[in-house]
Structures are given as structure tokens and as C-alpha cells.
Amino acid sequence: MTEHFIDRLLAAIEAKHAPVCVGIDPVAERLPEEFATRANSVRAAADRVEAFGRSVIDSVAPLVPAVKINSAFFEAFYEFGVAAFYRLIEHAHERGLLVIADVKRGDIGSTARLYAQGHLAPPAFADVAPQRIPDAVTLAGYLGAGAVRPFIEIARATGRGLFVLVRPSDPGADRTHEFGEPRRFYQHMADLVREWGAGDGLIGARGFSCVGAVVAPKDAHSTRALRDLAPQTFLLVPGFGAQGADAEACRACFRADGVGAIVNASRSVIYAFERADLSQRCGADWRACVAHAARELAAEMADVLA
């Protein structure tokens, strides 16, 4: 029987004492100096973004259990960026990391089946390396069960997972997700995710479904209430660092026993070389700055959950 995704994720978190992942969201204009030479073609630009992503993965692999690779930051470079995205997934797997592909797909069932085939299913072609397929993906579930079911079926059969957007970190989304009295829209989405994740073969040995949710920490009361609303739903937690959330705010996304979520940080880690304190500490070694920031992230979350 294929091992359940969340069971694998929890084992990796516990092995590294780090309930965190690093988001690979590279912007060409913010790359370190060695990648900053002006690209004269889209292929060259994609190559530099990929090289940076590989270096970040190498720097954080000993410290965190997973990375979250955002496809949008690669799709901007057309076919060259898409190829780089899949190669980075393979590279992260080779470094022993679990990979969450941040693709946020969500469409009607006939289209969702093809999205699921391209982003989560084992390759149907012999010339595609299985290591290029992520362990989990992010989805938008607003078109209902039909948009999510093809991914659930693949996750159940192959030991993979998915995280459905429930409560985003962007304050601009609050007008949508905080709407409703007395019941908020995000609470309705949490109920749907809990329902979708309760089917046969979806709950792992540790009691969590492979159908998880993306939940940003807001105020502690509403975040804890949302956590309690879906006890078998594992949470992917955005918003740490550059988006304003700290370790204490993220604490409410975890169960009382300190499990049930993984906190993602992107810009605060991958651009850590921009911090004056770290550049003084690490000098010109930007990779050391990234590793230091990843170590800080893991330590902060471990401390607040102790």
C-alpha cells in the first residue's frame, strides 16, 4: 500500500524538528549579484531563475522537510520556465525534500482531470521522470467538488496530497473570505474541505486527511476556531515573515499537541541576503544567509510549539 502523504510529511517534519517549508518564488530583479546579469533572451532568464532555485534548495535541504514551488514565477518565462519548474521539483526530490507545487488550479471536472494529470498523476510517458511530479498541489475549490475530485482520486491512489484554499493571507482577499454573518465564507470552505477529505482511503495512520487546506493566521480566536472546525484537515500556513505573520500568530493553526500544520515562508528566506544583519554575519555568501534564515524559521516555530 502506498504511504499516505501526510504521514510522510509528518515523519519528515519530526526528523528535522521543523514544521516549516520554504517557498521558491524567485523574482528575476531580486536575484543575487551572480545571477543579476541582464538576460538577453527568455531562455537565459529562465536559466538564471532555475539556477537560483537550485541553490536555494541546496541551502535549505538539510534544514527543512519540504519546499513549496510556485509555478507562476516560472510560467512567466513561457515554455522555458515551465520546464525549469518541473526540473526544480526533480532536484528537490533528489535532495530528499517533499515538494508542494503551488499551482492553485481549479476548474470544471473535465478540465480538472487534465490539470490533475499534468500536476499530480504519475507520468503516462516513459520519457518523463517520476521525480518531476510533486507530492502535493494547491487548489482553488470554488467551482465545487468537481474541480477537486480528480486530484483526490489521484492522491488516494498514489499517496499524494492537495491543499485547498480556505483563508488566504492577502488582506485584499478579506472582502471575499470574511464575508457572511454569522458564518464566514472561509468557514463554509473549511466545511467543504473537511467533507471532501473524509472519504474512504483518505485518512492516514496519523489521523489526517490527504485533503488539506491553505489557512493563513489572522486573529488568534478565529484561527483557533477554524483549526477546531476541521480536526482531520492538515493546514498549509502562508503569510509568515514578509506578509506579516510571526511564529506566535501561526501557533493557532496547530492542534494542542503541536501538530497539524506546516508554515511556509518564501521571501523572508530566499531573499535573506538583503537583510543587513545577515549580510554582516555571512558576508558575501548569500547562500549562508538563506540557510541562516531557514534555520531561524525552524527554530522560531519549534520554540513556540514546545
Structural description of this entry:
The protein has 306 residues and is an alpha/beta fold. The chain has one domain: TIM Barrel (Alpha-Beta Barrel). The chain is built from 13 helices and eight strands. An eight-stranded parallel beta barrel has the order 1-2-3-4-5-6-7-8, surrounded by seven helices. 49% of the residues are buried.
Keywords:
single chain, 306 residues, alpha/beta, TIM Barrel, eight-stranded parallel β-barrel
Question: What is this structure's SSE topology?
Answer:
Layout: H1 5-16, E1 20-24, H2 42-60, E2 66-70, H3 72-75, H4 78-94, E3 98-105, H5 109-119, E4 136-139, H6 145-158, E5 161-167, H7 174-177, H8 185-196, E6 211-215, H9 220-229, E7 235-237, H10 247-251, E8 261-265, H11 267-270, H12 276-282, H13 286-305
Parallel strand pairs: 1-2, 1-8, 2-3, 3-4, 4-5, 5-6, 6-7, 7-8
| Mean pLDDT level | 94
In DSSP terms (H or I, runs of 4 or more residues), the helix count works out at: 13
The top level CATH class name? Alpha Beta
CATH topological fold name: TIM Barrel
Shape: globular
Query: How is the main sheet built?
Result: 8 strands, parallel, barrel
What structural class do the secondary elements suggest?
alpha/beta
Distance between the termini: 33 Å
Summarize the structure.
The chain has 306 residues and is α/β, with parallel strands linked by helices.
